[in-house]
Amino acid sequence: MSQRVTTVVIGAGHAGLAASHFLSERSIDHIVLERGRIANTWRRERWDSLRLLTPNWLNRLPGHPYGGPDPDGYMTAGQVADFIGDYATVTAAPVRENTTVTSVRRTDGGYQVSTGEGDLDCATVVIASGACNAPVVPECAAGVPDGITQLTPFEYRNPGSLPDGGVLVVGASASGVQIAAEVRRSGRPVVLSVGEHVRLPRTYRDRDVLWWMDATGVWAQRYDEIEDLARARRLPSPQLVGEPGTTIDLNALTGLGVEPVGRLAVIRDGAALFSGGLRNVCSLADLKMRRLLAGFDEWAGIGDDPAGFEPTRIPAVPRLRLDLRGGEITTIIWATGFRPDYRWLDVPVVDEKGRLRHDGGVVDSPGLYALGLPVLRRRRSTLLHGIEDDARFVARHLAERLTPRVVA
């Protein structure tokens, strides 16, 4: 026999717990389902040295600010998990851990959520399972010769866990550049395949660059004010690392000895072939960074040009071909992005790209909502401090839908 509850929240990360906080404020009975432990992704699917990209002073959840001794530092993955876990305790969130959702189906009264522990019938569902449930690996990975170890950021832990030899890192967003730097510092040769990327300095005019993003209102921009929303939701994470004052752009990497090459085009006959557009993609990233910094200066009333940022240095003749059978490379790390996984969702609300169809978190099925997705309602939607506005809106919309059945 199914259990009846008004709302089921899927996922006990920061987004799901923020939803729970606002549902509780409105006295809406609900259950939060989590496939593992609270903040499971931060506990199990991060490499050892990973730190949050946002400084601690910026990190907060609804009613739960950072209260530690290092406001200018950056949390480790374990500290993030503890921060979220503490929030669950403080808010007394009704979480059921180790409960995997196997399907969500429409019913006459709303939805049936099936789990390995039984079924729940509910009027509304909040999907807060995240946007990074599975790594994206290009189809050309099938052409990698036998004997080369292939990993994703979910599987990578540290350089010591890799076989001896050179490493090809594919992808130059935050994950790719951080892993490339760490592996290179261990003494291994590293080749970094670079496609579209977002270059940012860690600090700008003596302040963390994310202070500028927050203070100038860039992150507060609403989803319905963005000209190309689909593109904004696909942007790679910026080239940042959670180390005070440390910039990790391509100039920093080449200074370490990392060899940049163009975007991986194909693997054919045991060789990786790269695009010849490396100079162009780097020039575009440089241009966008300078425009952003100039915008910060305009906001601050500073007339000087952004200074101290030389163009990205690339080899005079970047390599276009890398023999994967010659022994130079023993490991490939696919830092090529992540995707959500909705295979359990038996409601036709997922597009051909595997993304939820929604309008600011209101999914294209009555009573179904989403939280924690890129630019859900604002540019900061996926960040810890960005969830509050989104979760408050979703809870209000959900409550209005339930009225007068639940809300007095």
How is the secondary structure organized here?
Elements: E1 3-10, H1 14-25, E2 30-33, H2 40-44, E3 60-61, E4 64-65, H3 77-91, E5 95-96, E6 101-107, E7 110-115, E8 118-127, E9 134-135, E10 149-151, E11 166-170, H4 174-185, E12 190-193, E13 203-204, E14 207-208, H5 209-215, H6 229-234, H7 250-256, E15 259-261, E16 264-268, E17 271-274, H8 278-300, E18 321-323, E19 329-334, E20 338-339, E21 358-359, E22 362-363, E23 368-370, H9 387-402
Parallel strand pairs: 1-2, 1-8, 2-5, 8-23, 10-19, 11-12, 11-19, 12-15
Antiparallel strand pairs: 3-4, 6-7, 7-8, 9-20, 13-14, 16-17, 17-18, 21-22
Helix pairs in contact: 1-3, 1-9
GO molecular function: flavin adenine dinucleotide binding; monooxygenase activity
Protein name: Putative flavoprotein involved in K+ transport
Organism: Actinoplanes lobatus
